[in-house]
Write a structure and sequence with these properties.
The protein is an all-alpha fold. 67% of the residues lie in helices and 0% in strands. The radius of gyration is 19 Å and the shape is elongated.
Length: 48
């Protein structure tokens, strides 16, 4: 019984991560482009 619960939990986790990835893959480039539209460049947090 415990093994079946583990399998169902693993399958549900994989499915939810797949759906999250499918949702976010198309949104990442526009968000990055929007963040850079104002021309403000953030300083490097690790200066050389």
């Amino acid at each position: 019984m415990l093994m079946a619960a583990a399998v169902v939990t693993a399958a549900a986790t994989c499915w939810s991560l797949f759906l999250l990835t499918a949702t976010l893959v198309g949104d990442a480039p526009p968000v990055v482009a929007e963040a850079r539209q104002d021309g403000y460049r953030r300083p490097n947090p690790y200066p050389r």
